[in-house]
Hints:
By secondary structure, the chain is of the alpha/beta class.
Amino acid sequence: xxxxxxxxxxxxxxxxxxxxxxxxxxxxxxxxYQGGANAGHTVVIDGxxxxxHLIPSGILREGKICVIGSGVVVDPEALMTExxxxxKGGIDVEGRLIISPRAHCILPVHKIQDAANENKSSQxxxxxxxxxxxxxxxxxxxxxGIPFFYFNDTAKLxxxxxxxxxxxxxxxxxxxxxxxHSVEQVMEYLNRVAPGILPxxxxxxxxxxxxxxxxxxxxxxxxxxTMLDIDYGSYPFVTSSNTISGGACTGLGISPRKVDKVIxxxxxxxxxxxxxxxxxxxxxxxxxxxxxxGNEYGATTGRARRCGWxxxxxxxxxxxxxxxxEIVLTKLDVLDRxxxxxxxxxxxxxxxxIDRISDDxxxxxxxxxxxxxxxxxxxxxxxxxxxxxxxxRARQYVxxxxxxxxxxxxxxxxxxxxEAVIRL
Length: 424
Ligand code: IMP
């Protein structure tokens, strides 16, 4: 299976970091295809916690090559900080990280604009991570962005910064009513960060092409989740990139015909951060319990995550749109203390029962979940490593989910550590 794509099936934070770490054991290359430092992948190895935002989680496995593809937006300062942290944790990154010259550079003005937009009362509040992701992708699409290959040509870089600031300053002065930014300031910033990032820039597409020809194993690591996809998520409460499996092809330059397998990662319940519809959200003490048990606080922003029941309508949609072959179910142990566990099997929308998401995504705002109820299990699953260690009712819960969602659950994660997994 040379090319495997791993995607989040919900609103992000499904525990993909741990899964990438697990699956990358027998991979040669781990490649990020979209997003930026808005992601937060937490991996615990021998009790040591690593939080990665931009660097693929494969960096924690000795010898693995990590790629940041053209579909990613890169904040050079955030990258440098993260590299320092990883190195401090005893990880050797030498020659193991390669960034596409086509990836776009997040500038300080992008972060300022992200915050200004969130604070502007006339604008829709999305609850972004404030990392400059949306403005950087907007400028990329408007052909005003700064890809890293511009760094090799000072005249081109200066012209691009000038053109960008011409429009940005209009926005800052007239719309956001904040200060403007000079070309000199931005060029000074770029000249300062360039020496740190340029050694990592390399021809990632050719590297991946050759790896595929040589039959090497590649894991394409998605960030965020299906419901945050710019085209197929709960728009406008989404991130600005294609989080779904198709994004791996555009974000890495891999032909769809070379993708062999798609693995979906879903939490045993649902969470989301930021604004936007969330049909199975629990605003009661059960939601609070899940939040505490699951330590549901953002790895990037520290924000408390909204918590709710597993939603099979969302998960079925994720299976369809990503072409998911198998599922990794994470954080089952978080439900250990619950007496009753509910699963959303369909929605009631405008008096109609539906069990599939159509292109009219606005239904999520009016959807009333229809639940099936399960008794909780009496033995804890925390730390379980063998299928026979799962209590009967926990096994039934997992089987119910896989049947309703339409793809096999092949791995269940029962705790934050590398060893807390059951292969079914
Ligand atoms: P942005 O990606 O910072 O522009 O934020 C847009 C939306 O995506 C907000 O609702 C964020 O909370 C959400 N988001 C972005 N990255 C993540 C993530 O890694 N996990 C969960 N939600 C995320």
